[in-house]
Amino acid sequence: MERTAMGELLAWKERGHRKPLLMFGARQVGKSYLLEQFAKENYENYALLNLESDPRIAQAFEGSLEPRNVISNLGQVLGWPLDVKGMLYVFDEVQVSNRALVALKYFQESGFPHPVIAAGSLLGVAVNQKDYSLPVGKVETMILHPMTFDEFMVATGHGLMMEGIREAYAEGRAYQLHDQAMDLYRAYLLVGGMPEAVSEYARSGDAREAARVHRDILSLYLADMAKYAPNPTDVARARDVWNSVPGQLAKENHKFQYKKVRSGGRASQYEGAISWLLSAGLVTKCMRVSSGQVPLRLQEDVSAFKIYANDVGLLSTMSGVPASALFDARGRSLLDAGGLTENYVIQQMVARGIDPHYWTSEGRAEVDLVVEDGSAKAIPVEIKSTENVRSKSLKVYRQRYDPERAIRVSARNFGPGEVESVPLYAAGCLADDLKARREGMGG
Question: In order of start, what are the domains of the chain with their CATH numbers?
Answer without folding.
Answer: 5-143 (3.40.50.300), 149-440 (no CATH)
